[in-house]
Structure formats: C-alpha cells, structure tokens
Amino acid sequence: MDDLALRITSSAEADRRIQNAVVYVNMAHVVGLYNAGAISHEVMSKLMQGLSNELSGYPISYQDEDVHMSLEKDLALKVGLEAGFIGLAKSRNDQVATAIRLQLRQELLGVMENVLSLIEAITGKASESIRTFFLTFTHLQPAQASTGAHWLLSYAWSFLRDLERLKLAYQMTDISPLGSAASAGSIVQVDRYFEAEALGFSGIVENTIDAVSARDFIFDSIYAMSSAAVNLSRLSADIVAYMALGLIDLDDRYVSTSSLMPQKRNPVVAEIVRAKSANIMSNLLSAMEIARGLNLSYNLDLQEITPKVWASVDEINDMLRVTALMIRGLKFNEDRAKEIAIKGLVTASDVAEYISIKYGIAFREAHHMVGEAVRTCGESYINCLIESLKSMGINADAEELSKMADPISSVERRSTTGGPHPRESLRQISAIELKVKEFEDFLELNSRKIEKTYQSLINRGWY
Questions:
Q1: Between the CA of residue 181 and those of 87, 94, 154, 448, what are the distances in Å?
Q2: 49: three-class secondary structure by DSSP
Q3: CA 402/CA 69 separation, integer angstroms
Q4: Nearest-5° angle of CA 320, CA 229, CA 424?
Q5: Greater confidence, 396 or 313?
Q6: Helix 306-328 crosses helix 92-128 at what angle (to 10 degrees)?
Q7: CA 276/CA 312 separation, integer angstroms
Q8: Which of 66, 366, 436, 442 gives the lowest tally of CB atoms within 10 Å of its CB?
Q9: Which pLDDT does position 187 carry in this prediction?
Q10: Is the dihedral of CA 165, 167, 171, 172 positive or negative?
Q11: Is the sign of the CA dihedral 43, 49, 55, 59 positive or negative?
C-alpha cells in the first residue's frame, strides 16, 4: 500500500489506548482455542507466556496498519511461528470491538468516579451553606428567596442522573463480541460464553453480525458524557453570571486577570468548561454521523468513531475535576444577595399568596393587585397594596405584610419538598449521600471484578 494511504488508513496512534486490552483479548481467545481443541497445551502455554510479556509494552507502527498486527508481529519475534495461531477463529473485527469495550468499561468507571467527587464537593459546600441567603433567577432576573445550598443541590441531583446514564452506558458496553470473527463466526467451536466470562463481561452480543458492527455502546457513552457536559456548562454559566453580579467569588487559582486591566478577575476556567462542553456534544454527533450510512457488518469507517469516545473521556474528566476544585473554593456574598433580593422584590409572590389565603381573594386577582402596586410604588409597594385592599373593604395589617415581604424570613416559610428551607436541604443531602454510596458500591464491585479478571488471565498458571 502507498505510504500516504497507509498513514491515512492506519489506526496505530489511536490504538495505543487499547494496547493492553488487545493483549487480554488474545489471552482469553488463546485459552478458548485450547478448550475447543484447536491448539495443543504446549502452544497455548507458549502463547500465554508470550502474551503476558507483551503487557509490559510492545512497539506499534502505522506500517503494521493497527495495534493487532503490531502485537502479532512482536509476539512472533518472541515465540516464533506459533504466534500465527492467535488469528485462528478470530478477526480484527471482533478483536477491536472487544478491546474497545474492555477499555471503555474502565474509562467509564473513571468518569463515574470523577462525577462522584464533584457531587461530594457540591454536597460539602451545600452543607456549609444551608442558611446562606441566596436567590433564584428566572430569565436571569431575580425570582425568589433561596439559599446557597438550594442552588448547589439542584446540580447535585442533575449529576446523579448523569451517573445513572453512565451506569447504563457501562451495562451496554459490558457484553462481549469475541468469537464472532469477521462477521459469521468460525468453523472452530469456540465457546463465546467462556471467552466473555474470562474477560469479565456480563454476557455476549448474541448476533455475530451485530457484534462486529455495533457501536451504539459508544453512542450511549458519549451521550452520557454529553449530558454531564451540559450540566457542567450550565453550572459554569451560573458561576460566570453570579460572579459578575457579585453574588459569589472564586479562588484566585481559577480566575485570571486582564492583560490590560489589572483590576479584573475573570472566571476563565468556568468559561472554558462551558465552551468545552460543545466538544463532547460534537463528538457524539460526529460518531453517529459516521455510522448512520454504513451497511452491515464491518467497515473501516468504524475506526474513525473510536477516537471520539477517548477524546470525550479525556475532556469530561478534566472538566469534572476542575469544576470540583472550583466548587470547593467558592464563596457566597450574602450581603450582595440580600441587596439584589430587596431591589428585585423577590417576595412579591409571597405577598400575593398571603393575601389570597388570608383574605380569600382569588390568586390571579391578588397577583394583579401586587403587580399593580409594584408598578405604581416600586420598593414601597406594600403601602400601595394596603390602599388597594382598603378600597375592597379590607383593613390589612401593615406589619404582617412587611414581614411577608422580608426575603430572609421567606426562606423559613418555604418548606416545600425540595425547596430552600434548611430542613429540606438537610434531607436532600442525606438522600444524595445514600445515592452516592450506591454508586460507590457499584464502582468498587466492578473495579474489583475487572482487576480479578485480568489477574486470573495472567496468574492462573497457563504456562
């Protein structure tokens, strides 16, 4: 093949990510070949020893086309012609699909671990901010009285749902294509269930055509990461906006000054996290676009999908880690929050609900009355409202209405499930911590399973 054509079609550089995974795939397959009576015990032992040695590294070159041929070439230098047996009843098609799944399982566990660390950073900061006055926004306008914990916990729940999506992506990835060969299996009766178990998979991809051509598990994985990226982007957008409003501040390590204006403290890290989220979403679209027009089963186009998932993993891990660090150093400015809340009349809805309940006025009418009082009198709208009520024959208590308009006491009145009341924040934190523990158990269980699987392949005494 022409050298330029070889460089373009080679996946050698991207394959470095699955270098060890390819070795483990071959180890499981060699034992599968022995069990099927296709190779002798002597050949099996020789190959297993040689493959174990390859785990310490082997050269990968584009001139070999891909990692699979590089491994076989290097193995041949170490064990001789018997290296050629690793291609029996196996194609690069099922081998690469299996190796990608092996590697991606570990990568997904790593992403989930970073999401958990971010959630723990959020709940830790929320625990410190249960009574820290804050406010909510709609349309980026002051809306209602709240707390720092209430705002932070909204993101904790979002990231917990991302963990559910990542867990589902893990389960979609955790099935084995190995033994499918090029697309229709082999005349060698390799036990695909055995090979799957040897690699720690939960099952097999049942149809051999589907097994070598399916990349939907990659779409699932990038989608889960894209969802987390969207939530990171929205959190970053909040950080940028709230810092501009003076509601929060970040540690100096996560801001930058201007090349001209020395007074500036720009939230550049949050801005870049917000921008990088688009990279992951574009990886998802790109990966799906590559696959959408492909006939079954295998086409080399598929190898262009794999780098998208590795790039997404690297991107999301950096974004998650730096955001957790930002959150840990975040500080609230309660005085500024109170100032904005008072000027923004964030308790106008409280007052409208109060007079509706207290005086039996339909809420829509109460809403109109308070809105009219605000338009007429601004921050002194309570006086105008009292006059409006008088015109209806209602003598409202000015002190009661003024208390209802106080933003600080508004938080104490908001005991809605999931609302900003400190008691509710404590309940949510406890519920989130239980969920976190479930995911930690899932990570520990599957990490141990993978480690045990690999150790069994290496140390079981095949040679």
A1: 9, 5, 47, 29
A2: helix
A3: 79
A4: 75
A5: 313
A6: 10
A7: 10
A8: 442
A9: 97
A10: positive
A11: negative
Inter-residue contact 19 to 59 (CB < 8 Å): no
The answer to whether residues 79 and 128 touch, using CB atoms and an 8 Å cutoff, is no
DSSP for 199-256, written as a single string: TT-SEE-SSHHHHHH--HHHHHHHHHHHHHHHHHHHHHHHHHHHHHTTSEE--GGG-B
pLDDT at residue 179 greater than cutoff 90? yes
Burial class of residue 151, CB neighbours in 10 A (0-12, 13-18, 19+) = buried
- Rounded CA gap, 192 and 198, in Å? 10
Question: pLDDT tens digits for 206-248?
Answer: 999 999 999 999 999 999 999 999 999 999 999 999 999 999 9
* pLDDT confidence of residue 348: 95
Which pLDDT band, with edges at 50, 70 and 90, does 296 fall under? very high
Q: Which of 348, 136, 125 minimizes the C-alpha distance to 245?
A: 136
Return the number of other C-beta atoms located less than 10 Å from residue 300's C-beta.
Answer: 10
Nearest-angstrom CA–CA distance, 400 and 351: 10
The length of the chain is: 463
pLDDT in tens, 423-452: 999 999 999 999 999 999 999 999 999 999
β-partners of residue 137 are 142
Say how far apart CA 94 and CA 102 lie, in whole Å. Answer: 12
Q: Is the pLDDT of residue 26 over 90?
A: yes
Q: What is the pTM of this model?
A: 0.95
Question: Domains in the chain, ordered, with CATH?
Answer: 3-88 (1.10.275.10), 94-179+209-339+428-452 (1.20.200.10), 347-406 (no CATH)
Q: How many CB atoms lie within 10 A of CB 263?
A: 6
